[in-house]
Design a protein that fits this description.
The complex is a heterodimer of chains A (about 260) and B (about 15). With about 260 residues, chain A is mainly beta. Chain A has 4 helices and 20 strands. Helices cover about 15% and strands about 45% of the residues of chain A. The chains are: A mainly beta (about 260), B mainly beta (about 15). Strand 10 of chain A pairs antiparallel with strand 2 of chain B.
């Protein structure tokens, strides 16, 4: 059987809100390492990878590796019934066809059980090699969200260019064009407010803003976001989940035909 | 013309 107890239950609620519009059904893989998921969107342009390490849970028991197929919209409906301060416990039996979500209020005066049916999902898993990226930009997550939202009111695609001058986000549409440049800025009070550019080589890639905007639904998970780019690889947009792991989005670039 | 690539163009299936 498996049983995970997550004191900061709101983390799981935030993860679901970040991915449920991108991916409909997914297999959650449970092992001694942690609770993970890898799933592509229906058009195979974007991929979500989640890892919540076992050490981040107050209690983590996983007797054998288990794959739980869930409809993310239904899971989100269940998790929305948990309070933001609730402790969430996930339970399932080996070979069973249900998962139980238990929500405990912080004062322990309200305890709820929700059972959800599991699904058989045949999903394609991609092998993602560890890569050295030509450029990695780390910036405040709220700033990145604002840029993607602003640019999508003007165009459908964004060109992200990293040079030693900074990172430039550009778009063009019927009404005109826009360029937003963020320079490296490490002289801030808090590290999460910094913009840090690690550039081995300049890189310039084009992406669909629709997907970028979808990724920024993960903004409540982390103060900062990192964008890893190479000219021959998908973009990686990573939100670290404090003390537990990460939520990563991979996005295939657009190219000149 | 700008063409949208897919992830399979970069990553292999396991």
């Amino acid at each position: 059987m498996l049983e995970f107890r997550l004191v900061q239950g709101s983390l799981l609620k935030k993860v679901m809100e970040a991915i449920k519009d991108l991916v409909t059904d997914a297999n959650f893989e449970c092992s001694s390492t942690g609770f993970s998921l890898q799933a592509m969107d229906s058009s195979h342009v974007a991929l979500v990878a989640l890892l919540l390490r076992s050490e981040g849970f107050e209690h983590y028991r996983c007797d054998r590796n288990l794959s739980m197929g869930m409809n993310l919209n239904n899971m989100s409906k269940m998790l929305k019934c948990a309070g933001n301060d609730d402790i969430i416990t996930i339970k399932a039996d080996d070979g069973g066809d249900i998962v139980t979500f238990m929500f405990e209020s912080p004062s322990q005066d309200k305890i709820s059980d929700f059972e959800m049916k599991l699904m058989d999902i045949s999903s394609e898993q991609l092998g993602i090699p560890e890569s050295e990226y030509q450029s990695i930009v780390r910036m405040p997550a709220a700033e990145f969200q604002r840029i993607c939202k602003d640019l999508s009111s003007i165009g459908d695609t964004v060109i992200i260019s990293v040079t030693k001058e900074g990172v430039k986000f550009s778009t063009r549409g019927d009404i005109g064009s826009a360029n937003i440049v963020c320079r490296q800025n490490t002289s801030v009070d808090k590290p999460e407010e910094a913009t840090v550019i690690e550039m081995k080589e300049p890189v310039s890639l084009t992406f669909a803003l629709r997907y970028m905007n979808s990724f920024t639904k993960a903004t409540p998970l982390s103060n900062s976001v990192s964008l890893s780019m190479s000219s021959d690889l998908p973009l990686v947009v990573e939100y670290k989940i404090a003390d537990m792991g990460y939520l990563r989005f991979y996005l295939a670039p657009k190219i000149e035909d | 013309e700008i063409f949208q690539t897919s992830l399979e163009d970069f990553f292999t299936n396991k």
